[in-house]
Give the backbone structure.
Amino acid sequence: MAFSKKEKYNVAVVGATGAVGRRMITTLEERNFPIERLVLLASPRSIGITFKFKGRTVPVEILTETSFAGLDFALFSAGASVSRQYAPFAVQAGSIVIDNSSAFRMEKDIPLVVPEVNPDAIPDQPGIIANPNCSTIQMVVVLHPIHARYRIKRVVVSTYQSVSGSGQKAIAELTTQTTGVLESKDFIAQVYPHQIAFNCLPHIDIFLDNGYTKEEMKMVNETRKILGDDSIQVSPTSVRVPVFYSHSESVNVETEEPISAEEVKKLLGDSPGIQVVDRPEQNEYPLAIDAEGKDAVFVGRIRDDISRDKAINFWVVSDNLRKGAALNAIQIAELIVRR
Ligand SMILES: NC(=O)c1ccc[n+]([C@@H]2O[C@H](COP(=O)([O-])OP(=O)(O)OC[C@H]3O[C@@H](n4cnc5c(N)ncnc54)[C@H](OP(=O)(O)O)[C@@H]3O)[C@@H](O)[C@H]2O)c1
């Protein structure tokens, strides 16, 4: 069934009770996405849960193979195995799938889209569109204008990723552990292999044979796919930190063309989706707590690399549940309904 323009659309959020799914619901409402019918889907564990949407109470339904009849969009954020199992049924029913999981991101025929970077990757009649990994999205929004002007050769990035990137259970775990430590109570680490409260874990997702984690290799491979340039070298280290919301990243970029921090500040200030916060003399630079709930990717500490020519350093912060997940997916849907 071909996609056709309408005044309002039937939309499903798959994984509606999760950290990303909840942001999907509030972001759809805030941005006034043209919705006729909102269908909220999750596992049988969530039966009885309801959400408010535009003044109405919407119950959560159990996801099944037949959930997608009559739906124009299915926004998936229920993990890769759920996407692999159910996205084909959604496509078969004629829905456009926008998938937040890693299930399809690196498949050759599936577009991996960040609207500020590669909106033209969305085909006329989309089936599945993949939403990139949260740490990759905020980095490529900033790398894109730099690459267009100076040609990027190499990126060295270290991430400081919030626990909400691991879902609802991790948010609860940081809360329990923080009070547990402060009140000298016993607790066990369940979501992470070690205590996350008052700690930093250089370990996100599983370790691969090359010594990097899967999260780190997502930043390598997805960056190249989105920027459409396999020659870009990316050297990542991903770290989980005891922060609830927003990921922060320290990024060093080396370019083919001569580059300067002054020029980059101006360039990024004029680029879509980016807000430059860079007045260190006033103690102003991007902070995780300030980025929470905001749409922009915040950049600051933009400075020349004192160790080599044609290289700069900067600090990037964005809300991983918003631009890193729900907002990016909804922006993709908006591009489709507006064109
Ligand atoms: N958190 C982030 O910053 C972020 C960013 C980008 C992408 N993602 C991706 O988005 C996905 C969800 O992440 P999250 O952080 O929102 O996780 P989460 O908080 O753990 O939520 C998972 C959601 O999936 C649902 N679900 C799990 N198994 C299901 C099944 N068999 N059938 C139907 N629904 C099922 C859960 O429903 P129940 O409540 O009923 O169990 C819940 O709604 C993951 O693929 C993740 O990699 C997350």
Q: What stands out?
A: The chain has a mean pLDDT of 97. The two ends are 18 Å apart (CA to CA). Helices lie at 19-30, 80-92, 134-150, 168-182, 214-227, 261-269, 288-291, 322-338.
